[in-house]
Structures are given as C-alpha cells and as structure tokens.
Fold:
Amino acid sequence: MLIDFLGIQKNASFNGVEIDGLLEFCHWFMLILFVGWGCFFVYTLWRFHRSRQPKAEYFGVRNHVSTHLEFSVILIEGMLLLGFAIPLWSGRVYSPKDASVHVRGIAQQFGWNFHYPGPDGVFGRRDPKLISSNNPIGLDPNDPASKDDLVSVNEMHTPVGQTIVVDLTSKDVIHNYALPSMRVAQDAIPGTMVPLWFKPITVGEYEIICGQLCGSGHGLMRGMLVVDSAEDYKAWLDERAKLKAGTAMIETPKASVAVAH
Amino acid sequence: MDASTTLAHDSHSHNPGTHAHPHQSWLRQYVFSIDHKVVGMQYLVTALVFLLIGFSFMLLMRWQLAYPGQSLNWERFKGNISISVSNGVGSVTSVFTGREFKPQPFPAAAPYDPAKPEPTLLGKLFGKASMPGGVMAPDFYNSLGAMHGTIMVFLAIVPLLTGAFGNYVMPLQVGAPDMCFPKLNMMSYWTYFVGGVVMLSSFFVPGGAAKSGWTSYPPLSVVSDQLPNWPSILSGQSVWILGMVFLITSSLLGSVNIICTITQLRARGLKWMRLPFFVWSQFVTAFLLLLAFPPLESAAIMQLMDRVAGTSFFMPSGLVVGGNIVHVSGGGTPLLWQHLFWFLAHPEVYVLILPGLGIVCEVIANNTRKPIWGYKSLVFATFFLGFVSFLVWAHHMYLTGMGTVVSSFFQATTIIISVPSVIILTALVISLWGGSIRFTVPMLFATAFLPMFGIGGLTGIPLAFSATDLYLHDTYYVIGHFHYVVAPGTIFAIFAGIYFWYPKATGRMMSPFLGKLHFWPTFILMNCIFMPMFLQGMGGMHRRWYDGGQSWELAKNIVHWNEFIGVAAFLLFLAQIPFIINFFGSLKWGAKATDNPWESTTLEWSTPTPPGHGNFLHEPIVDKGPYEYSVPGMTRDYAMQDINDGKTDAGPPPHDMEIPYTVHARPDTGLYNAKLGIWLFLASEVMLFAGVFSAYVFLRLGADVWPRGYLNTWMGLFNTTVLISSSITMLMSWASLKMRNFQSSQRWLLATILLGVLFLGVKAKEYSDKFHHYGAFIKQESYSKYKNVLEAEGARVTYHPETKLYEVTGHLEKSTAEEIVLLPDLKRGVPTEAKEVDIALADVERWGAFYPKYSSFFAIYFTLTGLHVLHLIGGIVVLAYFYFFGSRIYRQNPEHQANRLEVCGLFWHFVDLVWIFLFPVLYLL
Structure:
C-alpha cells in the first residue's frame, strides 16, 4: 500500500476504510502522472539539448497526444469526484440512524470537555454564565436532565464497534477535533454545534489533536480517545457516575495543559 | 510629469541610455521617482529584503522545531548543527554497514535566570517575553508563524511579481514609455513600503506581533493581543490589520495601473494576441488583485471594528475566554471572516503563481529557441483560471461543517480549476520538444520550476476532495503542497526572472558560475526541506505545533525529520550567499551586456541598455507575434517583434514619447486612460462595499431580532434628496465645461461641494443623536419590576430570546453608580408623553449609548455609513481642489479639465449610488 509506505496512521475505524481507499488511489494516480510526465520531461531535456539539436524546430509537437492525455486526466479526476469523493462526503455528513453513543465535545483553550448525557439520553441545559472552575461547561444543576450527565476532561471513552456521534462546539475560539486514526476532523466553532460520526473497530488509545490554531497552548492541546470493549465502557461510565455522586458536583478540571511561559 | 517627459527626448538623443533626465534632483530621480523602472527596482530590492526577513523568521521557527526548548545562541547553534549532521551521517552509514549506531545526545539547556540581562542577541532584540534566554516562547512562535506567512505572501512574493517585474518589464514589453499613471505608481510603491514598515514595527509593541496565523481567524484574532494598559488599536493584531490596509491600497493602485498600461499603451501593431505571455499573466493577475482584495479590506475593517470599537461582526454570543464571559453584543459569526478572507486568499494563490508562469514562459521560449507551444490555449487557460479562482475559496473550509451540496460545488470547481493548470503546464513542457535547449542560469531555474510546480499541483488532488482532506487538512502535507507551488515554484521563477532581465536593467551580466553555484544547492535543499513534509503530514503531524510534535505519541516516528529539515533550511540560507554576491557584485564586475544579450524577441530587448527615461529611442512598431524563434527560411534564429529588429537607435527620433491617450481616447478602446482607470477603481469599490454588505446579510439572517425604527427616516430621506441633487449639479458642471462655459461649470461645482457638505452636516447630527441615545438590557428575572411601569407608559420594549434580555431604549437623563434614569422611547402611535423610569444597574446585563458596539445593527450601520462618509469626504476634497486650482489646467487644455471632472463625477455618482442603496437597506427594510 502506497499510503502505508508514506507512513499514514493506522486506520482504526470502519468509516476510514473508504477514505483510505480514495487516498491510496489518489497517490497512485499522482505517482503515475509524475513518473510518466517526469520521464518525458527528462528525455526531452536530454534529447533536445543544444549539443544534440543545434537548430530548433519552429513547429515542435504537431500531434494531439497531449490533448488526449489532458482529457484522460480530467476524466479520471471527474470520476474520482463524482464516483467517490462526493458520495463519501455525503456519507460523512448525514446523521447516522444507528448512533448508539452521543457525546458533546466542548473545546476550550487548551483542552477538551466531553459531555455525556447519562442514562436518560438527554443533555442537560448549559449556560455560559454558570461556567466556573468546577463546572467547565456551565451545566445547569437545576435542570432535571442534567442530574445524570457526566463531564470528562480531555478523556473520551467510547465502546468499540458502535457508531459514535460527537457534537462539537467551543467556548472561546475555533478549535478542530482531529482524530487521524479515525479519519475524522471537524472544526469546533463557538456559537454553532456541528456533529461528526465515526465507528471505531479497534480497542486502544488514540490522541485527539486540536487542528486549528487556538493560541499559545495550541501545540499541546491534546485529548485522548479511549476505545473500550463494551464491558470496560460500561465500567468506566459507572465509575464516573459514582465519582460524580461522591463529589456531588462535577469534577474539578485538571489544568488542561501546562504552558511554559 | 508632462514637462519632464517632453524634455526627456532631448537627453536621449544626445546620450542614449541615460537613466533619467538630468534636470531632476537626486531625490526625485532615485527616491520619489515616477519612472516605472526606478519604481520597479525599488520594489525589487525592498521585496528581496522582505523575502530574506520572512526566511529568517522561518529559520528561527525551524530551530525551535528541530531543537525544542533549546536556547538559540551561536555556541549552541554550531554545536547542535554538527551533532545533527554527524548523527545523520552515522545513522545512514549504519544502514549500510549494519553496525549499531548510537546517536549523540544534545546537551541539556542551561538554566535561565530572569534577573540577569538577556544572554542572547535574539533575547535582546525581541525582548524577555519572546525569547527568554534565547528560548522561544509559544506566543512568539505563533507571531513568527503569522508574520512569516504575511511577509512572504504580501510583502515579498506579490511585490516581486507584480511590483518589480510587473513594473519594470511589462511596460517595456508592451512598448510603452512608462506606466499609464506614473505618480500613482510611485504612490503604490510608497504605500507598500509604509505597510511593510508598519507590519515589522508590530514586533516591538507590547505583546508582540500578531499571533493568530496569517489567516487571522476570529474569535482568536479578536480576543488575542488585548492588553489592559495598552490601546487596542496599537496592539499586534491591530497593527497587522493597519499594515494590511496599506498593502491592499498599494495593490489596488498597482493593479489599476497595470491593466490600464496594457490596455491603453500597447505599441502600434501590438495586437492582443501578439502580447508576450508574461504580459497576459500580469493582466489576469491585476484583475484578481483588483477584485479579490477589496472584500479582504472590508473584512479587515470589520475585524478592526471588533477589536477596537467592540462590535461583534465575527463574535458569536456567549463566549467564555479564560473562564470569563466576553461582554460583547454577540450575534456575529466567525465563519464570515473565513469566507471573506478566502475569497481573497484563493485568487491570491493564482496571483502568486501566474506571473511566475509568465516569467518561465518567456525564459523557456528564449532558451529553447522556438515558439511557445499552444500560445493561444495558454492565454485562454489563464483567463479561465482567473475566472474560476473566484469560485473555489471554500475548499479551505471543508471542515467548518459543510453540507453535501456546498462541498460538492466547491469540490467540482476545484477540480475544474485543475484543468487550465494542467493545460498551462502541459503547454510549457511540450514547448521543450523540438527545441535547441541551452541551459543558461535563467533556464536552469525555469526548468526546475516545472517539476516543482508539478509536485505542488499533484499533491493538491487529495486536498481537493473533502473526504481525503479530512485526514490531511492542516497537516504538514498541506504545508508541503503549497510551498512546492510557491517556494521552489514561484521563487524559482523569480530567480529566473532576475537572472534573465538583470542585464537589461543594469547593463551587466550576472556571473553564470555564481548562478550555478546558487541554483544547484538551492534546488537540492528546497526538496530536502519540503519533501519530508509530505511524510510528516501523512503521519498526521499538524501544523503550528510549537514543539514540533515532540510531545505527541503519534508523531514519534516522524518528528526526527524536523532536525533534517532544520539543517537543510540553514544550508539553504548559506546557498543564497552566491546570489547576493552575484546580485551586487555584478553591478561592478559583471561582463558588459549588449542590448539583446539573450537574442530574444520581445520589445524590452529593443531598448537601449539600460533603458533611459521614456524607454524607446524610436517608436516601437510590432508586426509579429512574441516568440518568433527559428522561423524557417531565416538566417538568424530569432525575429524581433519590433519592425526595426532590435536596432535601438533606428528610425526617426520619437515624435511623441509622452504617455499617450491622457486626454484623447485611444481609437481601439474608445477610452482615455483616466476613464478606464476610474472604471476599474469603481469595480474594486463595488467589491469593497459588497464585502461589508455581505456582513449585513450574514448578521441579519443570523439575528433573532433585527431592530427597526432606531434611525430617523426623514433625515435619511432628506439626505437622499441632497445627494441625488448633488449628482445632477455634478453632471451640469461637467456638461458646462464640455460646452466651454467655465464660469457656469464653477458655479455648479460649488453647488455640488456645498450639497456634499450639507449631507455631512445632517449625518453629523444623526451620529451625535445616536451617541446621546441609550439602551439598557434588563435581565429576564428582574424584568417584572419594570414591566408595569413600562407597559402603562407604552414604552417600546424588545425581547431577545437568544440572550433572554429585555431591551429598553430612551434618552439618558441621569446615571449614577447604582441606577440609570431613562426617558423611554414610546411605541408608535402612543399619544402620552414619556415619563422617566429608574432602572437599577443590578438588574441590567449591559447598557450604553447607540455606539457601534451596542448591537449588530449599529455595528453595521456605523461601518457602512462611516465608510460611505469617508468616500464622500474624499470626493469633496478632490472637487474642492478642482474648484480652486482647476482653472490652471482649463486654460492650458480645457478638454483635459473636462475629463478630470468627468472622472471625478463618475466617482461622485458612484458614492451617491451607494447611498441610494444604503438608505433603504438601513432605514426602511
């Protein structure tokens, strides 16, 4: 595989397979074009060097091979666009019906808050006025829906083999939730809530990158996606719920990153 | 100008090759010169300096990426580079010998004592906050990143392509005595220069230079660089915006000039399809600059308003930065900036590449000694490219939450735009076939350009598709992609151009030996720098990480490339030394150049070397295409475009080498120069107002409540009448002059000016009313306290569901620390008098006069009308100048004065038209 040779991150998702296929095809296409074109180029430079060709031809190439080549390039690009790229994208942006886990990702300088709706499946109300050091997303404690909600800082857990939907937004500036191993990335834009979905197929830990410059700590804004087996995932949720009941309030966020000044 | 050009002929006939005519002071000849060649050289030298500065910034960043957290001083620099090189050599040889290799570690950083004076030069230069002890701070890394991009694009590459080559070569190639508007040309250089100085000065304001990337995405760019004890207008990001406004202005002046010169000043017989391709590339580029830059200017104005006046064009409601609620009216959208930014910045990509392709085309034709293959398809492809480049901007925004329909459109346009690019590249490559290729230094760079540009183009394919872009977006893959287009691409074209036209400009050849010593290391090192970036990007390494990915698990296998790239970049710096020596040394020691040292065909080689003021010693007349090399049946292998075939002093002395068509229309275009100029300028003005108007549409569509009735419609209507009348008087003034009735024209002109002033007076009254009018946003939970009083009175109360606030407006009677007293505005048709209402400040979320920051409505109202007022003031100043000093020109040349009034009138009518559009949009709808 050409893209593996180039060092692509190992794909750990169901939805990444097709994207890798398109990436692979694109790179073969590029390679063939470049090599073919490069051979012609180098041969031309050698063949028509002044020492071998003291007098230039006024007309040069008289056939229309290049037109055919141009049309084939356009044809292949068009085929890639209509046959693969557009369908793939429409597959990325629809809301999956079989989504079993729904999480909200609320970015801030310089960390990720993950908001789980809890057993009731309803996200509690949030209000920016309630944001404090121990309530990083401004969850309204008086809203009945928020009673069982869980908030996890910089650590996101999902069960393996399930379709995960993450609604992304931001408290302050634009961030980007980039998960190379799941082949997903989406801007987290304040004032909007944009969903993305993926389906992890391999248990493991994956780094969540902030892919959009967000200030001095941008380079260290890291989240961790932990893809658990179904049992581990349940255990994690229970542990979180217990922790929440114990502290009665949402956990104090760790200083998300240490920024050297 | 008129006098100087007439005098110039005499000096030519006596002394061919004089640089400028002798009656001018040194200052006018070399500093504030209006000669396009001097301006071109000024651009060249200034932009090359900026190229070096931008490159140095990247070297500082590359140090940080290669050796994160290490102090940058001479000692460590030598140490680290030698360790890196020996480690590199060691690990490569270990692959062949099979022996295990243990890399030598870098010494630990020395402890930093902030109490002591800064130990390094960089620490002293950039201050303790930026480079404490020579170690780069993250904010400073971001500043350097933002400024590297800004400087390279706006202060180095574009000025080199359009400012230097566009100014120096293009007028010569079209056979013109100078640019169409020489004074404008001088202004355009000096505006650029000031913009550059402003940009660089931002490093030395408290807080440092802009640090939100060259793209300056809000809200980051709005909330950053806001210091408690320093005015926002003078902080890094604001200075960046101010610098950009200068650069945009300079670009606009330059592009109007370029288009007019090509259209109006083409030599006799130089039909459109006989233009050298370089001229075509300048023509399309100028249109891109003219139409794409104004929306960015409008966006810059709005960002400045957000930063300084507290408006919310790009700020949504409910932002919490660093745990604190941001107190702005909200309701804006960050994506609006991205749309306006990329609407410029994508055409800008073609601004960066088209003139480069133009230079390469010239050099290839000359050094293959045969015509360019498919000249016509090149020209049409360029036009198509320019046109489609306005329709692809959102492919930079695939990850903003784009739906299928929109993304399909932009993916399709992106694929479509690859078609002309492929056609252009193919034409250039096929042009080599059948040639008799000589590898002069310019040709080496032009040849290398082709595969480098090819790599840049090909790696655009996976980025063009939104699905594959998901993985590659904002990784080093993207960095590699666009640098291949611009660095070994365009910069190679620039070098080719410098080596190619240097003899014409200076009369000396550059050393081919030093040229080759420059070319080969540069070519190899460029690839060493940018090729590994594709691997890093494939591995998922993202851009703008100030530790270079050292702390990331996923980057552990690719982070070592940073060291390799870093060393290559330092070596690339060294590789430029032969060029610098060659550039300056050849002035003195270079071999003397003949008038046509490359045996080229286009018109610039029919001038004396270096060309004097007015350029040509005889009127150039063209009877053939641009690339007539190796014409069958000819003894010599090139036929020059000029009918005199390169004899620089052939023919009768020029009967008229003044700039033609300043007064009378050019027969084939039907326009005199200034009229074409003003139409182009108005086109850019349309784009400027359209940019702000798009903000109006965005804000209004996104608003939960759009306020009505805050403006005095009758005053607005009165002002509309005033402006319409002023257009009529303006027209009468011009018509009177056409009929040679100067007195009557002056009277009408005075009436126009007075009407303009009257409009400003009414506007001032309207503005001051707004500043005395207040509004308070009462919290939902406290509203019940005031509900009865307000309702009984019939006060106008607006509920904002998004923020859950009740808005009460009125005249402010009194304000104390605890409460405000308002005389509320009443609903329409309520017969009673308003009574004072006391509102406790504890119940109020925010309150204030109708300043721009009060709400989105007032933000857009003040910005749009303010911009309009500035235009009106500009118009009044120019008309007043004509009123008081116009008689002088009128006595010399009445038609000229009539033309000037016509051109000003067009601008005046445009400003009126803007108002006629603004009035219903703001007051009525």
